[in-house]
Fold this protein.
Amino acid sequence: MIKRSALVLLSLVALNACEPKPQRNITNMESTTPMTAKDVHTQSNADEVTLSHLDLDIKVDLEKKQISGCALWTIDNKKKVKVLKLDTYDMIIDSVAVDGKQVAYKRGVVIPHLGSALHIPIEMNSKQVMVCYKTGPKARALQWLDPQQTHDKKFPFLYTQSESIYARSWIPCPDGPGIRYTYSARVTVPKGLMALMSAENPQQVSDSGIYHFKMETPVPAYLMALAVGDITFKGIDNRTGVYAEPGMIEKVRYEFEDVGKMVTTAEALYGPYRWGRYDIVVLPPGFPIGGMENPRLTFCTPTVIAGDRSLVTLIAHELAHSWSGNLVTNATWNDFWLNEGFTVYFERRIMEQMMGRTYADMLWELGYQDLQTAVNDIGPSSNDTWLKLSLEGRDPDDGLTDIAYEKGSLLLELIEQNVGRAKFDKFLADYFKDHAFKTIATEEFLSYLNANLINGDTALINKININAWVYGPGIPANCPRAAQERFMKVDAERKKFEQGANPAQLATTGWTTHEWLQFLRKMPLTLTIAQMKLLDDAYQFTNSDNSEIADLWFVMAVRANYKAAYPAMEQFLSTVGRRKFLQPLYGEMMKTPTNTEMARQLFIKYRGNYHPLAQETLDKMVLGKK
């Protein structure tokens, strides 16, 4: 049983996203018994009925755009309840059987974001529950792609995105991050196509179109993943490799040449990689996020394929999730920072080890800038800028902001600076080992931190001021900042341009993506068309193959009314589905009446190329839908 402080117990008081709450007093480190974190985003009763294993048998119909089949759950009715409740969302239930006998089930009312609970009558000694079902047309996890929406434009494609609570739209399940189970699957797809899951995967196409998968390590539902399409494989080393459409596989293999070294670097920092293989599948361009840390198989956006390995920091992030997130998982989405803040910190330690301290300093500084933007957008006094969130009655995606990522990682950096790197590294390695394949809430982490690192040191407690980070808004006053050695040189060159220097004469040789982002981010908001043309002529930003640079440049082009970039911008919007790029670009267009109309026309034209999650976000932003 993990010890915890009296302070930590106080933090279990419900937090209101709109009303401020008093600071907690963390100086009283009295040990008490842990409390169970309540997950407000699952309607399942997995706290009463243990669901230990899933046998999934499904067929993927790419013409009908539907998954159908049966989910067989092995259960233990430990509290002898009369009903098993599972999460579903826009799902057609064909039949339900308990221990082989069909039963009459009920559907709960549809609750926004959560869907409807499936109520299944069970007996005291029931052992198996089978649900046969079909996915509905509004399954939020699924993106069905027509051939023209793929890279090679030959075959249709399907992929899933289950985080945060979207697994329930393609599998009837207990859909909460604190609920783990093993699974096996039989997946039937059209002959000639490959199926992949977050499990042990094939490396060649099956002649029968039938694939078998197993995941023998318990995982939560949000890490359930499936991809089906014209996919091929290339190895990197004996435990890493890449999957992609045939037309991309060589570029992908080149881009990820150093992934094996990344795994070794990560292991040297915080202990062994516990998942067997680490492979990556690069999906078609509609994928709404940068990457998804599905166990054994990271799902990755093609926007990282820049041709020069300049954007592989994203892979370091998804790899780091194999420890923080997959190995040790946030108990609820209110504790999301425990997944992402730890992962960003780990990612930057990997990159520092591989690329040097000044390189990592650039990542830290750009992250700090992203945190500033997030705090300003959300509101500096908003409770949504706390690390410990209160998302009851809301879509948990509301909490998937840079607060969890950047504020969370900066707290860990602050702790490291105050206790010393060697001591902090040992603490993190022990943390991952002690909590392997378990879930943890914020309060449990704070208790573990005190017991194993802080040790009741009042001076250290006051210096770090964890309350201001976990239960306080905005950016705390003691937030660390990275050294600016390389960015100071970038800023000096930018100032020369602002003072009239020809950009072609600036000292930019050898700049990384991060230096170019700093160069553009810090430009005045009022660049003229003539200045934009000078920059474009010198650096070919409009035609950049680097998606990070291109997106920022297109935002600047809209702001400056630099129409020479608009055709390339439209091409970008037609092929890129990553929300990180779509939101700021459409958002900038929405700031003036003329550009608002352009945004609406472009969005309506290319909406079908975007994942349902990106569609939802942009429907609200561009079309004003609720």
User: Anything to note?
Assistant: Residues 259 and 320 are 12 Å apart (CA to CA).
